[in-house]
Amino acid sequence: MKIKKIRIKDKDFHYSLRKKRGMRSMRLAIYPDGAFVVTAPKWYPAYIINKFLAEKAEWIYNKLQHIDFAELELRQKAEKNDYQAQKELAREIIQSRVEFFNQCYQLAYNRVSIKNQKSCWGSASRKGNLNFNYKVAFLPEELRDYVVVHELCHLLELNHGKKFWELVARTIPQYKNIRQKLKIKK
Q: What is the pTM of this model?
């Protein structure tokens, strides 16, 4: 992914350019956090991408002019500082809950990582790594424990099928209600 710059109406905007294999057309996305992403087929030359952006310049400008980038930058710095300050405490809390619930499941895992993710509470990899958003540690206990159990269970079932939910229900029988509360929290 490359960071590029486009000038529209005497104003510079930065965007991320992602080139992907297998795509047939370009995609443009502007997110509420100010992220501006252009995704293009791997083989597209720069002049086609630039032409596309020129054609969409008015739309891009209309979307981006309402975003207060200075405020966003301040918020992002505050978030980063909070993450740095809370990361180790979050690691201790989450690691202890992983160990507690794993007494029931007896699953092998490699490492527990604490991250500052924007869009998810946690994830589990095929390699047996567990990743958690640092904010999980500071959720109410039932929500935090649900997230931990959810990711632990993905070590056995990397999907959300019937077997997966049966595993979750072993230690969190009220998981459906908790999931609803967690959705509201986002």
A: 0.71
